[in-house]
Amino acid sequence: MFGGLVTGIMADAVRAAAGEEFVTELRLRVGRPLIVRTAAERKVARMPSGFVYTVTEGDIDALLAAASDYSVYAVSDSMARGYLTRRGVRIGVAGEGVTEGGGVLSVRNIRFLTVRFPRQVRDAAEFVRERIFPGRVPRSTLVISPPGGGKTTLLRELARISSARADTLIIDERGEIAAASSGVPTLDVGDADVLTGVPKRIAYENTVRAMSPEVIVTDELFGREDAEAVAEIVRSGVAVMASVHGRSEGEVLKSAALAPVVGCMQAVITLSPYPRAGTPVSVRIAGEAEA
């Protein structure tokens, strides 16, 4: 179940809360109830007996061991950045940070995990497909939503559609869009090329020259460096589809770091996690009335 990450009694508790095909996220906090999220709701997991499933240190350790192929040391660099991935499943980690010189060296005494399971929704882009693809190459597009709003699911579908028309490259720093295993996507991203696990700035500089993509699809932008890099790529003539956290375009524009990327995009899509993930809030196409 769940790629071997969730087994035994915990798996039974999760299964009692929601079917495996519907689970999008688990939240584990030592000594607290296990929380199960689907696209539509948040539930407390219960054991078959009906008692609330309470997370233990053993649960955390077992999940981390499975996610790291039983070599937590091998993924220590990733965990120092706050997460690790296994076949597209992103596991956020929190505990005690070990710092030096302003940087995080490692995380110890991990007691909190957020496990996010990627889901393929093949019609996720249908509500906006014709407007984003007026021709062979798509409009440069920014997808905005709060956490859990369906940004990655939409980007995955946009990448798949784009790859049938134009040379498309996915820069998948956190491994969530393509869910690659040993470099091979486990989710359907069409004929797109995929680069996983490389910081965006380095990936942008190297792949634009080496791979000559017509379209770049990239996961969540964070901070001025990411925004400026994307703006520069768009100015160079490559279409970019990317996402940022936010509740509205106006909110993102208030960020001095992220405003430049909004200004260079031809389309801005805002999503909401309510009443379910991926709910469209607005679509703005440059030169058109907002929908």
Automatic annotation (TrEMBL):
Entry-linked SMART domains: AAA (SM00382)
An example molecular function term from Gene Ontology annotations: ATP binding
Highest taxon in the source lineage: Bacteria
Gene3D superfamilies for the chain: P-loop containing nucleotide triphosphate hydrolases
Domain AAA+ ATPase: 137-273
Keyword Ubl conjugation: no
Keywords: ATP-binding, Nucleotide-binding
Keyword ATP-binding: yes
Protein name from the UniProt record: Stage III sporulation protein AA
